[in-house]
Structure formats: C-alpha cells, structure tokens
TrEMBL record:
Domain notes per entry: Consists of three domains, a large central CORE domain and two small peripheral domains, NMPbind and LID, which undergo movements during catalysis. The LID domain closes over the site of phosphoryl transfer upon ATP binding. Assembling and dissambling the active center during each catalytic cycle provides an effective means to prevent ATP hydrolysis.
Main location: cytoplasm
Subcellular localization, as worded in the UniProt entry: Cytoplasm
Protein name: Adenylate kinase
Binding residues for AMP: T32, R37, Q58, L59, I60, G87, F88, P89, R90, Q94, R135, R146
Region called NMP, residue ranges: 31-60
Highest taxon in the source lineage: Bacteria
Species in which this protein is naturally found: Prevotella aff. ruminicola Tc2-24
Gene Ontology terms, MF aspect: AMP kinase activity; ATP binding
Subunit structure of this chain's protein: Monomer.
UniProt function note: Catalyzes the reversible transfer of the terminal phosphate group between ATP and AMP. Plays an important role in cellular energy homeostasis and in adenine nucleotide metabolism.
Family (UniProt): Belongs to the adenylate kinase family.
Amino acid sequence: MKNIVIFGAPGSGKGTQSDKMIEKYGLNHISTGDVLRSEIKNGTELGKTAKGYIDNGQLIPDDLMVSILASVYDSFGREHKGVIFDGFPRTIPQAEALKKMLDERGDKVAAMIELDVPEEELMKRLILRGQQSGRADDNEETIKKRLVVYRNQTLPLIEWYKNEGIHHHINGLGELDRIFGDICAVIDGI
Ligand code: AP5
Ligand code: MG
C-alpha cells in the first residue's frame, strides 16, 4: 500500500498531478478542499461552517478536518493500493493526527512529495483559474491570505516530514509531464 502526501502551496499543482497519479497507479484520492467544496454545494451544516473559513482564506479547525479525513479513508476499505492525501495535512497537529490514524490501522505514509513553486507563479496560476472557473477563493485578496496561511501554518510541515525521513522535494515549476516524471521516480522508488 502506497499512501502518499502530495504537498504544496495553493496552486502548486497538487490536484493536477493527483489526477495523473490516480490514472497511472490506481490510487485513491482525498482532496480535503474538494470534500469541503462539495459540502458547500450541497448546503450541509459542514458546508455552511466551512464556507466562512474558505472564503476568507483561512483553515477549517483541525478537529473537524481530522474526523472527515478518517471517515473518507475508511470508506476505501482495506484492500486499496494506496491513498493520495491532497491538501492534508496543512498543520502539524493534522500531520500528527494522520500518523496516529494510520498507525491505528497498521498503515503509514510512504512518501511526502513537495511541489515547490515560487509565489509569483502561484498567484498567476490562481488568478487565471479564478477567471476561467470562478472558484470563489481564487481572487487576489483571498489568494494573498491563503499564501500567508501556507507560509505560517503549513510550511513547517516540510521540517516535520524531513524528520520522518520521507520528504521528497520536486521543482513544481515547468512542464506538467516533467513534474509528473519526477513524481513517478519517487513513487516507483518506494
Ligand atoms: P484546497 O482545495 O486544498 O486548495 P489549495 O491548497 O489552496 O490548492 P489548490 O487546489 O488551489 O491548488 P492545487 O495545488 O491543487 O493546484 P492545481 O492542480 O489546482 O483548499 C481550499 C481551502 O479549503 C483552504 O484554503 C482551506 O480553507 C480549506 N481546507 C482544505 N484542506 C484543509 C485542511 N486540511 N485543513 C483546513 N482547511 C482546509 O493547479 C492550480 C492551477 O494551476 C490550475 O489551473 C492548473 O491547471 C494550473 N497548473 C497546475 N500545474 C501547472 C504547471 N506545471 N504549469 C502551469 N500551470 C499549472
Ligand atoms: Mg487542489
């Protein structure tokens, strides 16, 4: 079982590269952002709570995210080839909770893959996506807040995963296929 954390700032390509990984390796995928956006669309209580945070570029509280994550993970059953965690963890408590949740099931994260992209490029990509798809948090003001949250709350996870001995750095700037090739080299090496 190859459980993989795909890690990076807003707009770094986590979702884009996850699609390719799902296709090539038959992995399952948990995008906590997609889960929350679907709850918002369906008008659930969770969606109503989440909307306030997302529109303001802030993170949803850890305890709420952790309980969602465990239930989605368990929905894949015990026979899966592995799960891509996209957009989770985003804080050190979330990383600790993920480790504990997997430990309790006899599982683990095999690799944390960091997509490293400069902020000017992230801003360009997200503004463009906002114009094309209208994702509510893809406007300049909210993107700036998301990047601050990333720097302050999420970036420290790189050191955390280095200490776990499973951090892999990838240059996330450039051609999609070159980036995917670098990701495959990590996955094939697990
Ligand atoms: P989430 O949905 O996870 O958003 P995000 O982390 O801000 O990242 P994005 O989905 O915007 O970017 P991505 O890295 O997936 O890049 P993509 O492939 O789309 O989270 C949204 C919100 O939900 C958070 O702000 C928070 O409020 C809440 N939330 C989610 N998880 C949470 C958690 N664990 N705890 C608490 N709160 C949580 O690519 C971006 C664009 O760039 C696309 O248009 C794509 O086509 C383009 N692109 C991709 N790769 C390239 C490339 N190589 N060259 C040029 N363009 C490219
Ligand atoms: Mg995404």
